[in-house]
Specification:
The structure is a homodimer. Chain A has a six-stranded parallel beta sheet with strand order 2-1-3-4-5-11, sandwiched between helices. In chain A, helix 11 links the parallel strand 8 and strand 9. The termini of chain A are far apart. By secondary structure, chain A is an alpha/beta fold. Chain A is elongated, with a radius of gyration of 26 Å. Chain A has three domains: about 45 residues, no CATH class; about 130 residues, 3-Layer(aba) Sandwich (Rossmann fold); about 130 residues, Rossmann fold (3-Layer(aba) Sandwich). In chain A, helix 2 crosses helix 3, helix 5 crosses helix 12 and helix 8 packs parallel to helix 9. Helix content of chain A is about 45%, strand content about 15%. The interface between A and B is large, with 50 and 50 residues. The structure holds a DNA duplex.
Amino acid sequence: MKKENISLKQLAKTLNLSVSTVSRALNDHPDISEATKQKVKTLATKLNYTPNLFAKGFRQKKTNIIGVVVPNITHYFTSTILKGILEEATLKGYKVIISESNNDAEKQIEMLNTMLQFNVDGILMSISKVTRKVDRILKVIDRVPVILFDKASNKIPCSQVVINEEEAAYNAIEHLINIGKTRIAIIKENEYSYNSERRFSGYLRALKEHNIEVDEKIIISVDDISLRQGKRMANLLLSLKTRPDAIFAITDSAAIGVIQTLKKFNIKIPKDIAVIGFSNSLSSTIIEPMLTTIDQPGEKIGATAVKYLIEDIENPNELTNKTIEIKGNLIIRDSTFKAY
Amino acid sequence: MKKENISLKQLAKTLNLSVSTVSRALNDHPDISEATKQKVKTLATKLNYTPNLFAKGFRQKKTNIIGVVVPNITHYFTSTILKGILEEATLKGYKVIISESNNDAEKQIEMLNTMLQFNVDGILMSISKVTRKVDRILKVIDRVPVILFDKASNKIPCSQVVINEEEAAYNAIEHLINIGKTRIAIIKENEYSYNSERRFSGYLRALKEHNIEVDEKIIISVDDISLRQGKRMANLLLSLKTRPDAIFAITDSAAIGVIQTLKKFNIKIPKDIAVIGFSNSLSSTIIEPMLTTIDQPGEKIGATAVKYLIEDIENPNELTNKTIEIKGNLIIRDSTFKAY
DNA sequence: CTGAAAGCGCTTACAG
DNA sequence: CTGAAAGCGCTTACAG
């Protein structure tokens, strides 16, 4: 019912050549005469021959497939990274298999193992939040090149492609200081999270370098940095004896929740309280006032990760464990602009 | 350097059995004795044996890989569909290869052909806007089961999973009529687009069934239904002698652009002009007033598409060309609520 | 109940 | 310059 693919064998038969010769002709092997090459190629295009990449991969122990594991594909930032991965991979002749871990450590390992079973040439992964034990991930690294992106871990010895989280956060806080803010709150993550920790470091460094005292009361930690939590934490901050005059939420959604709450209490943004988020999500330009935030170049991260992975794949004997930082850019909008 | 996978051969050798027996034992073939099965399985788990799915697929002419082609992975709706696809596919033991067509007809075909070269068992695709000639797509359908989702086409004979666009739009317009609106504008797509046409049909039917005259002046067509275009078209509608009292934009982003413009002119929403979008994007709850819109259950669409595709894959002789409609739900929010 | 052999579609060292 | 043969890791009809 379904049409069959034509194989080298069939080409060989109709041309009265051996399969080997046909294979070599198609691959432009120097041994083959121009005449034969022409003949073979003509027939191949005429019959619309396409090599069975599966068989080829099987033979060469190279599948040209890259496996990708991400916590959640629907996060806008993740989807832009994936776009970059797809583009760069396609350009280099690789296909991409994508899996979601849903922030579930068990599922993450399961996905990784299936990838291995499908003989992917390499794996790109953004580790899930709940990754405590990395021993099973280390086993995977033994088998195939792996590159981590976005969420890094110093427990996993492989190259990593990340945003300059610390510096970007530093710049954000410095911007707040430059517009006259001195009592800057941060809403960060509760549990250990690479991104959150790095951003928090940047926050601390900025305060320190500008001689602003750190006040634990305005350092807020929550489990999930969601819009809902942003609202709740804004309420909490407003209830303090001395309110902050700026709030840095380490995600846009929390920042948007903060803005919504401030507006409810008729607090002037940015005059009374300025707000900064992180990630330049689509909604950051829909909220009023528009949110100052840090743009994370997702496509660039994805493309870079692919480049390094392919390098590792093609030179398996000189694996290096670099950490590549991609710059995130502060985008100044109305939630911090013209503060006074 | 990298560890090798262990093969059936190695298991066979250490157990002094033939490869055939080991293979059968692992697959619970009835011919094999319980004792042997036990022995084999014990060693397999001990050595952490995982079958090479690639070799298996190669042999069985079945790869358990599904190919997916979408115009743009970063569209939120698309990413929710992909989530549904990934979940359902994983559940059924399939892997998913994803490609972007970027709304480029050439690239779309190219992707489809690479999928074929990788011997995918079936293809799920959302056709790009600019798909005029479908003849090359028809060739693909000859080779492997294909299911279309979101954007359908009656020129392509295969099953299709879509939103009940017409009915959903009808419901949206009827809702506007119910809150007292009688002069309802629509912002739709210029070029032929399945979604746009169906939504427009629903619009027309609702007006007709409620005896509201159609006025061409408030039927606006644009090339891309973006936020920017929403703003421009809102300006245009406001410049009319008799303004509409409601605007149905066939995408959320256009609707959000409309709202922003209406606010700029201090027009009361929904009292003066009500606004409805389509797709329940994340931003639709960030804009003020929150946007009434139609929720498209992306994950359900994805999961359904996978189910039908696997059915086609496993019963290649009884392919049916059904069109499955998934219901979109009208979500009433402030942009139309309490209109008077 | 178990094994030897063929074959899936390719590539490649070896031979001529 | 071309071909015969082996082999990638599996499954499965055939034989015993």
